Amino acid sequence: MKKLSVATVLAALLAAYATVSLAAERTPLLQDGKKTLYRRVLTRPGAELGAEPGAKGGTPVDAFTRYYVYAEREQAGKRWLEVGVDTKGTRLPGWLDAAATVPWRQQLALAFTNPAERGRALFFDSWDSLEALMALEAPGPELQALTQSLAEGHKDPRVLAIEPDRHIDINDRFYLLPILDYHEYFADSGHLLRGLKVASVTKTDAPQAPSEPPESVASPPADAAREVRKLAPFRAAVVFVIDSTISMQAYIDEAQEAVRGVYQQVARSDLLDRVTFGLVAFRARSDDPTRNERLEYVARLFVDPSRVASPAEFLAKASAVREARTTTDHFDEDPYAGVQLALEQIPWHRFGARFLVLVTDAGALEGDASTTGLRAEEVRSAAAAKDVALIVLHLKTPQGADNHAGAETQYRTLAENPAIQDSLYIPVRTGSVQTYREAVASLAETVTRLIQRAAQGGPVPSPEPGETAAEPTVDDPAARVRDLVGRLGYAMQLAYLGRRERTAAPEVFEAWISDRDLAQPTVRAVEARVLLTKDQLSTLHEILDRVLETANAGLLEPDAFFDNLRSLAAQYTRDPNLANTADARSLADLGLLAEYLDGLPYDSEVMRVDLDTWSRWGVQKQQDFVARIKSKLRLYEIYNADADRWVSLAPDSPPGAHVYPVPLHDLP
User: Of the chain's two ends, which shows fewer C-beta atoms within 10 Å, N or C?
Assistant: First the structure.
């Protein structure tokens, strides 16, 4: 029997992405050399749809509308494309001049990271112009001078556009930065840099408020008075998610006391309507029904920050949180249940600064052991989708000494923050109540000063590119909190101003950008997103669910596992022989996902898993692999339910063709 990789067979199954309805009469053309990937184009500015090739008086089409190509015809010396809005042949609006389109081979796009701690991205006219800067031994000074010149309105022939100084929130204002090509460059510093050829267009159907016109992408910063006016409604919510199991009462009391003190300060500053606190408590479920009843809950929202009318109301509601009367089954608890409850039940969109503070002395139950079915990576993605900063105060008490190392790994991952590209994990050695008290007070006070500054004098100053704060020692959590919250505050204000001003991506057509800040090559300027349609996400979920069934049945018999996957492949793919290709060794060798990323410097975690590796792993590691897939399935359900972020890329496209910008690292 031929040995095939898990990834190879998964690739065959994932070919169902492109499977069409049996009732459809027509399907799009395939890309040259591909078995599963359809031809797609994006429209250039000025494109028109005609009923027939060469027809006069066509209907204008918005720039960068996405269409599938169903037919191609030469007429009058021009090439014409018959296009449709989906892959099912149900809506074929007409013909486009091929010259008015650009091929889009991968449905992969980019999203800007928050520019709070990096230089603004520059859009260069050519790879040569970008490479020349990459080749400099120290490009920082030249980049800084170039950026300053452009921000002041001067021109440079090498640069077509500059990223706005506000954060462009793709969750709030969708924009499309498709990747058309790329080059890699190894800098003298040893870092791998990528130059990405992109096209850019901003979604234009969102209405503009007359009093808030969008600013020019190259305009100088607004005056202080205007900044104050725009930041006037800037509000902050700090929600504590606290472990309420036995031994945690002292920490619960200290959090309440810290908030009490901060509310007194807030009242003196007349900011009671601008800073508010919330409280969620969590425990864990038990296999013992009697113990479960005594535990009362797995997670409960005690104080919703959007519903607190006064400090007294917060303190009254928070006082109801008491430590459990009985122990849970394990030392690890279910903090992800508390975090997910806070993410789902609190209206975060009402706040500009969004802080969620997890307080626990135990590790986290993950996957099936958690009521959420999630792991740290998926909870982090769910928080990032709502632009919530997740801070972890890990109480390293003596009782949990054997648990600390594993818990720290979990929480460092959970607390990785995309806005400042740093982990918001803060250990509290020995679980010192005094140290914890100082850290919580520092957090609340720093948030209050942030809001006070916004109300009185505009945003905090922007750090210079490459400038980093001195790393506080692990013995000074309060200083670390001040550093992180200060940096986060600036990033959150940039995001808030971007939303208020409806800041748009630069309207250029084709240009080259670096995927990293050239002055700080460890800092990402952009992140890759896969625009999955609702139908694709649903099919992916269905297939992976079936794969998990076969995996659970074949953990002890790897050959049987692969035989079952091949059987599934024959059911789901248009090419039943795809899974039996003799030279297929990994996901990169064949299948839609490999074609989806073909020619791009990205891959997924399962690409290198073959039958030999699967067998060598043993049952425990195989189960870990299965658990990761199951957690991603739960995350896809969260994405599917996130109605506000599904976007149509073509007029009249059916709901199944709407897309969701899934971070690349969330793919299986």
Answer: N
